[in-house]
Amino acid sequence: MSLIEWNEQFLTGHPVIDHQHQALFEQINELEQAAIMGCSEAELFRLAEQVRLSTQEHFRCEEQMMMEQHFPGLEAHRLEHQEILRNGEALMEQYQNGNARLSETIPSSLRGWALQHILDEDLQLAEFMRQRARN
């Protein structure tokens, strides 16, 4: 069973962003499956690091696109990105300091930010881009 099933409700209409979202869902699902299967914390860390790096690249692309489109919500969206990355880095730091087990914390954390951010923030951006294309 997948943590997050990709479906049309997540589509923004921008092929690069949609592809990146779908790839992130696949990585998150791989991490969830590894946690369920009882993989080592070191393997979970490796997979979580992969998600972190992909997320950073995705946010960079998204912010570049927002600048090019003159998206009025750019700064708020950028702050949301920074908050997500800070939370992820804090979680990884807690693991490295021996204060958290990734198998217990990572899956629910990723599920929350991925769903909330795409459904709330990214779809607002998608609507802006659709309206802009009509004008």
Concise description?
The chain has 135 residues and is mostly helical. Helix content is 79%, strand content 0%. It is built from 4 helices and no strands.
**Helix and strand sequence:** HHHH
Query: Quick check: average pLDDT?
Result: 86
Backbone CA Rg: 16 Å
Biggest sheet character: none
Which helices and strands occur, and which strands form pairs?
Elements: H1 15-36, H2 41-69, H3 74-96, H4 102-134
Helix pairs in contact: 1-2, 1-4, 2-3, 2-4, 3-4
How would you describe the overall organization of this protein?
Helices cover 79% and strands 0% of the residues. By secondary structure, it is mainly alpha-helical. Helix 1 runs antiparallel to helix 4 (102-134), helix 2 (41-69) runs parallel beside helix 4 and helix 3 runs antiparallel to helix 4 (102-134). The radius of gyration is 16 Å and the shape is elongated. The termini are far apart. The relative contact order is 0.17.
